[in-house]
């Protein structure tokens, strides 16, 4: 397929899977830091009312004055909410009551387009924008998919996690048909991979063919180092610089860059 020209600078990529705990937030923080290491200007957007990404980048959601909330509801421009972080990426932070924004968006006309419209004025300032989606296929995730040219689907290498992928793919098909024909699935990102497990190996070998999707390489190994990163407000690329998982995220970021 032919490469499309980007709208205005940055390529916007959603990291989505309506299942929780599949490493969406971890992947956004890690890929963002990896892109920054490669010299790219990176914006991360926290679209989860749990505000885990905001917290993990060292920003207390309770101290956030202007959040993605106001940006989505049109009461503040994105530039007013964006903050720099110690990881070398910029963040459009969330607050815990983002769920309220979702409800307020529901009755609005064009509600799926508000994020895309809000990001347009800042898009020229970045090379990559990564959207950390909430574990649902609600209006915020539809906003993310509508604003994106690319989609990465993190998926742990366990059979159970595959449930629901069909539903996600149906939603992507609807979004492409109705809201955003430019959306392209960049691939499944295998996460929490235990290379010693035959089961995980079998899942990894099977998953691309099963869904007819590219599988990003290499898989991200399971590591206890991830548990330590959020406590210090830095991603694993800083806290465990030379770990296999950090290197895997760098390799995935490098291969994504050649495609976006
Ligand atoms: P999601 O955003 O999809 O809910 P998170 O990124 O918050 O998922 O990850 C869920 C949990 O799994 C977190 O505690 C995180 O530290 C952990 N985790 C993520 N990636 C790995 C990995 N490669 N190895 C071990 N634990 C991981
Ligand atoms: Mg998350």
What's the short version?
The chain contains twelve helices and seven strands.
Description of the structure:
This protein is an alpha/beta fold and 260 residues long. The protein has twelve helices and seven strands. A seven-stranded mixed beta sheet has the order 3-4-2-5-1-6-7, with helices on both faces. It is globular. Magnesium ion is lined by residues 24-25, 48, 52. Adenosine-5'-diphosphate (ADP) binds next to helix 1 and helix 10.
Order of helices and strands: EHEHHHEEHHEHEHEHHHH
What would the principal axes of the Cα set say about the shape?
Answer: globular
CATH A-level architecture: 3-Layer(aba) Sandwich
Q: What's the Cα radius of gyration?
A: 17 Å
**Count of domain modules:** 1
Structural class, from secondary structure content? alpha/beta
- Level-1 CATH class name: Alpha Beta
- Name the CATH superfamily assignment: P-loop containing nucleotide triphosphate hydrolases
- Total helical elements: 12
Helix percent reads 25-40%
Q: Strand order, biggest sheet?
A: 3-4-2-5-1-6-7
The distinct bound ligands, ions and cofactors come out as: adenosine-5'-diphosphate, magnesium ion
- How far is the first residue's CA from the last residue's CA? 13 Å
Oligomer: single chain
Write the layout of secondary structure elements.
Elements: E1 11-15, H1 24-37, E2 42-46, H2 52-56, H3 68-73, H4 78-81, E3 83-84, E4 90-92, H5 98-105, H6 114-119, E5 128-132, H7 139-147, E6 150-156, H8 165-178, E7 184-191, H9 198-211, H10 225-228, H11 236-239, H12 244-257
Parallel strand pairs: 1-5, 1-6, 2-4, 2-5, 6-7
Antiparallel strand pairs: 3-4
Helix pairs in contact: 1-12
